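Researcher: I'd like a structural prediction for the single chain below. Treat it as a standalone chain; there are no partners to consider.
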Amino acid sequence: MKELYGRLMIDINGKNLSEEDKFIISNKHVGGLILFSRNFESFEQLQNLISEINSIKENIVIAVDQEGGRVQRFKNEFLLIPSMQEISLYAKKNNDMDIFFDLAWLVSSELMAVGIDINFAPVLDVDEKTSSIIGDRAFSNSVSEVIAYTSKYIDGMHDAGMKSTGKHFPGHGGVYEDSHLHLPIDNRSKEDLITSDIKPYIELKDKLDIVMCGHILFPKIDPNIPSFSSAWIKDILKRELNYQGLIISDDLSMKAAKGKNCYIKTKDAFQAGCDMAIICNNRDEVKKVLSFLDDIKIEPISNISKMKKTKDVNWDNLQSNQRALNIKDKLNNIRS
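Model: Treating it as a single chain, here is the predicted structure.
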C-alpha cells in the first residue's frame, strides 16, 4: 500500500522545533515543510532539524528554494551559487552548456545530503526586463535559451536523484509587481503567452515533475489567478498541454492571493486541480486550515510521495568527490 501524504506544506519559525511545531507536523494534513534562511545556521544544525522532523513523520516532503543568486536559503558550508543569468552568460561565452547539468547535480546532491527532498527549481520565467522579483533569477530573456538551459538543469537534478519544479506557471517575467506584495496583472492573451512564457512548459512537460502556479492575474483568460483556476490548471495545463505531473500552489499567504481566508483559498486551490497547497508565515491561518480540511473531508493522497528524493548522499564523500570539486573550480572562475 502506498504511503499517504497530507496536502498542505507549511513552515516553521526557528532553527529547531517548538512543541507547537511538533504537534502541527504530526497532523495528517501536513505533508510538506518548506525551510528558509531563518531555519538555517550550519549543516549540522540543519541535519539535526530535518532528522527531528522525520522522527515525527516519515511521510513528509522537506523543501527549499535554493535557486542561487538572490534566492539561496542555505550558505556557509553549502555551495555559493551564482544567479542563473550569470551562469547563462558564462555558458554562452565559453560554449559550455553542461554547466547547467553539472550545477544542478551538485546543488541537488548537497541538499539531499542534509535531508532535503525537493528544491523548487528551475525558474522557467522568461525575463522580459520588466519584473521586480524575477530579474536575474530567470535563465534568459530568450524563450529558446530558457528551454535549452533549464532542460539541462532538470537533467542534472534527475541525475542526482531529485525531482524538478517548473515555476511560476504560466509565467511571471512579464509583469513588474512582486506577487509577495501586490497582485500583478498581465493583460496578454493566451495566444501571446503560448508563444512566449508558456512555451517552456509545452517543451518540457514530459520531464517536469512538478509545476508551481504563479500568483499573477491574466484577466483576458480567467478572472482567477492560476492557483485558483480550473481553466488554467485543468483546461490549459492538463488538457491542452497534456502535463501529467504534480501541481502545487505558490504560498497562499502572499499578498497576490489576497481577498479570501486561507482556508477558502486552500479549498479553491484543491478544487482547481492543485495537488498541494503552501501556506507560510501565518501559523494562525495554518491552524484554521487544518481544522477546515477535516470539516470538508479532504484526505491525504499518495501522489505527493513522488516529490521525495530517490537517492541518499553522504556529505563527507561529496566534499571529496572529484566531480564536485571540478564543478566548484568552474564556479570559482565564474565568480572571480
